Structures are given as structure tokens and as C-alpha cells.
Amino acid sequence: xxxxxxxVIFAALSLACISQKPAVNTxxxxxxGYELSVPPKPIDPQIVQDQxxxxxxxxxxxxxxxxxxxxxxxxxxxxxxxxxxxxxxQPFVITQPKHSDLFGNPQIDPxxxxxxxxxxxxxxxxxxxxxxxxxxxxxWMEQSRGRFGITALDAFGPYRMPANLWEYGLNEWGQxxxxxxxxxxSKRMExxxxxIWRADKGDLKSQYDAILRIYAGxxxxxxxxxxxxxxxxxxxxxxxxxxxxxxxxxxxxATRYVPWxxxxxAQMQWGLSxxxxxxxxxxxxxxxxxxxxxxxxxxxxxxxxxxxxxxSGTWDMMDRGCFNGPGxxxxxxxxxxxxxxxxxxxLMLRNRMINGFLEKEQVLTLSRxxxxxxxxxxxxxxxxxxxxxxxxxxxxxxxxxxxxxxxRTPVDDPATNPLSPGIPNYDFYSxxxxxxxGYDSFCPDxxxxxxxxxxxxxxxxxxxxxxxxxxxxxxxxxxxxxVDYVRPDGQKVMRTIADYxxxxxxxxxxxxxxxxxxxxxxxxxxxxxxxxDKAKNEDGIMSYELGIRSLDGSGSQKRGVSVTTPxxxxxxGGGGYVLFTVRNTGEPxxxxxxxxxxxxxxxxxxxxxxxxxxxxxxxxSATLLNGFISLLPGESGVVPVYxxxxxxxxRKAKISLxxxxxxxxxxxxxxxxxxxxx
Length: 678
What we know:
This protein folds into 3 domains: about 5-35 and about 555-675, Immunoglobulin-like; about 65-295, no CATH class; about 350-550, no CATH class. The protein has 10 helices and 27 strands. It has helices at about 5-15, 20-30, 115-125, 135-145, 165-170, 190-200, 265, 285-295, 350-355, 370-375, and strands spanning about 20, 75-85, 150-160, 210-215, 250-255, 260, 275-280, 365, 375-380, 395-400, 430-435, 445-455, 470, 485, 490-495, 520, 525-535, 540-550, 560-565, 570, 575-585, 605-615, 620-625, 630, 635-645, 650-660, 670-675. Strands 1, 19, 21, 23 and 25 form a 5-stranded antiparallel beta sheet that branches. The longest helix has 13 residues, at about 190-200.
């Protein structure tokens, strides 16, 4: 076989179907690696890594960019003050001997009390070995591509609060009746913090965009479960050191999601968007999302029946993607907060658009009604952690426009269907690409994220409803069937269907045998989505070729296809590849540029073809790498088919390749060829 043919084969095998576009060919020819005698591997395997198994070694920096660099100036400069306070009954955890407190903290050598405000200011704003080079400024600079950043975090304090920690912490979630002295606390920490700060420094609040109030102790969100039901078999098993200082009273107390936790955990406060944070909190970025951009929570209550699936889970920082980081969500008790929520997920496309982090032309915005007239759209989307590569987009939006109701999903009952998205009032679909680089390093997978979104926030209705504006389409809606934690008696507690980690395997993938799906259809909203192909550039940045078509029309383009069989019709040994050439014989058509929300003419003429292969002959099988290819009119692409023979079987076989247009199912062709095994 000639060298030139070998080169084509190696390039073809790196991806399922190679479109003969010179700009694409040049990049793809570099992605060789398959040997002719080696059976095909999935071109885009789904490899899900659970949060519990992640370490800091899983961090992958963005090539050539360090958004945490303090010398980078953001377009919108956000100034914050950090005011640190402790209590008569709770010193700063970070000032105690290493691993000495009841929770096993701090994880580093102690800091002097007078140095605590500066320590936490530096921890959150200046890259260092302690924070692994990650800062709240780095997060927002990365998400906004430099449009928004934290330019000051001035330290004040330390100050001693006038009341005990429990007097502030036991005034929420029905905890009033668990105080040591029987008083029902009504103190709000922010007022006391600000009055003490003002008495010391004067009224400085107007000089800052936000105040970060760091208090001694813990956010209850990071300790209620780990030092409650995970540590103690029942509330009666809680030992005295974890209980109420008044030993005549119960050692447990009520908490937010379940009936009880240890009193020591319950006396802590829940973080708020005010912004109020304990020393273990890694969710400051999340609270800034509320405070600086007025985005609400998108998370459910995963602990209360009837269970209700999460909205966006691990894929968005405004949901429990704010818990992303080494060790998973049960490591959010660590001080300083370098585990658990230390590396929150990026923002989904909807939130980046609302925040003004993307230019209008960086998102391809389509009309559902327009798709029925224009035919399918095929475009490339780049990983969301970086700027779109040339000729690609940061994401694709399909507006659910036309006659009302815009969202035509049938109403169902969330009481009986835990996977219900709730009230069908979503406004658009979004497609984006997640790659495990930058702050997305601690997402569980690489791939294509498909979601329904709302323009305005609203509840999703039903029992255990919640505020929901992103609803991720789960490629694996079945129960992930993984252990959440192990009880003190060794009993395994499984993750409920409402656990946010149920969406760990939600991403879509290109090709066959990936372990995920390469397409998804919404019959009610008349849309079909395709993950056609995947590529990486020389820096390792991922992009995906994506397609969307209407189920109600395919445009005025003339559709057609031809298939050419290879000249070489012999297979060496027990297996090898044959290369078919598929050609789009259709013709382009002029389309109205106003059909969509921007001029999409450039992406309207490709057709998407579904490919299947077969083999007739004793002990013979045919394997495709990809079930789709997209081609422009007049364009050709190579489709490799791996043929294998069982040992001792026939040396002859008939191979078939069937190609069908997704725009017109009547356009279908099957080519066959006889092959021999040498």
C-alpha cells in the first residue's frame, strides 16, 4: 500500500469521519495514532471521574493564561473589604495548633490572631502555595475573560463579637429551642460586625462594592452532615464534647435539610449572600454570583422526599457545582478551605450571557421556527473555559419561539416523577462544551452540555420545588448507583436520585461506543440535536461539531449523497480498515438571513448523514467509529470501517455501508463490496 494512502488512513482513524475541508484537514492529519491492525477505540469515550476521587493533581491550567495573575486589570473592578471576627466561645480555628480542634483543623500551622484578617485576605486574593495558586479574582477573571475581577480585598480586624457564636448560629432552620440558656436568639451577625468595624474605622462601607465578613468557626453547610449523621449512628450516640454546653439538654439540634445534627455543628451559621462566611467556606465565589450579578440559586433540596432531581448540579457554580474541588462535597469542613468547594465549576452559557461575559457574536442564536424553514445548522463550539477558537462559537442557543406555549413539554407530576423539570416554561436550549481545564478541571467529565433555560428565574413547582433556571438534559437519566457515605456501623448510604452528582455522567459525546449518547430528540419541542465530531487543537483545546435540526422542516436545499467504495479490497490478517468516501451531491439554496436571530447563512447548507455498516460472511463483523458525518454540498468525507474475522472462518465477505440524510430520509444509499482476507 502506498505511503500517501497510509497517511490518509491514519488521519481518518483518529476521528470517525474526516470532512475534506482544508482548514480542518491540516489539524486532523496531526492526530494520528491508530495502527492498521488495531481494532478501533471510541473517538470520544466518556470517562467520568467522581468528585471523591479528585486531588489537586487533577487541576489542568489553561494553556498560556493565568487569570489569577494580580497584574491583570479587569474591565469592571470590584473592591471588597474583609472584616474578621471571633467570639467569646469560639476563637479563630486558624489560630489553634494544627489538627487540634474538635473538627480536626486547622490543616496548617497556626496563625497569630492579629494576623488572621491579612491571612484570609491573602488566601482569597493572592496566589500562593497555600491556596494552590487559586483565588476568587482568578475565578471571576477566567469566567468573564477579564471583564470582571476582584481588585481589592482590604483586611480589617480582628474584632471580638459581643455575643457567643451560638447566639447568632441558632436562629435559623428551627434551631431556637436548642440554646444552652433557653433564650431564643435573634441576633444578626452582619449588624454587629458592621457596627464594631464602623466604631473602629469610621463608615467605610461606601468605599467598597461588597463586604466579606469572615467569622471564627464554620459554615454549617460544610459540617452538618459530616459531623452529624455521617459521624454518629443516631442523635442519641452523640458524645458530650459534641453536645450542648448545658449537659442536661440534648446533644443534638435541628438543621436545614434533615431532623438533626450534632449541637456543635448546628450552632454554626449558614453562609449567606450578605456575604457571611465561616473559615471553612469555599463558596465565596457563589455568594458573589448572588451579590454582584443578582443570580439566584439553582439548587434543590436533595434530602427531602419526594425526591426531586437537581437543575444543573456539578456543571454550574450557581448550583452545587460550587462544591467542586478535591475530595468532593464531604471535604468542605477543611480549614483553610483547600478541599471540597475550593474549585467551583464554571458558569453555564445562560449565566455567562446574562452577566455580560460574552459578546453577542460569540453565541450562535437560532430560532426554532426558523430551523423548520432554513434546514439544519451545523457549527463548531469551543470549550467554555477559553475564548472560542477561530470559526467557532462559545455556545449555541435555540430559542423556543413561535406560537404559545413556547415550551410544549407536557405537564407531569413531580410528586411521582423525580426527574420532572417541573412547570414547562423554559425559553431556550443551550449547547456548550465542557473541558476539564481551568476551574472546570474539577468537573467530572469532558463533553457536550445540553440544557433548557429560562430568561427569568422562577420556581419549578410541585412538592419540593425550587428556583430553577438551568435544566441540564441528562444523557444518563438512570440512577448512577453510587455510595454517598458509609455510616458508623458500616452501612452504605447511596446517593439519592436528587443528589447533584447524579448528573456526573450527563454530558453527550461524539462517536459510537463512547458510553454516552451522540444525539437527543425533543419530540414535543420539535428539535433534534447532534454531536457530530470532536477535535483538539495543538494546545489541546477541545471543540465539537454540533448540529441542530427541526422535526418540522428541512429547508429548500436539494439533498443528495453518493458513496464510493475503496480500490483496495483486501484485509491483512484478522482485521483491518476499509475506507469509503461519502459525498454530498446536494445543492445549496439561498436562505432568508432573518430566519434566525443573526445571519446564519454560513452554517445552513451542511447536511447531516447517519451512517451504518454491515458485514455478510461467516465470522465477519464491521465496526464504525462514528454514526454521523456532516458535509457541505460538493464536499466529500472519508468513512473508515473496521473489518474483523474470527480465526478459522471464511476468507471472503461482503461489506455494506448505508448513508441516509437526516434532512430527507428518502435520500439513502447503500454500497456494498466484496473483500478478501490475505
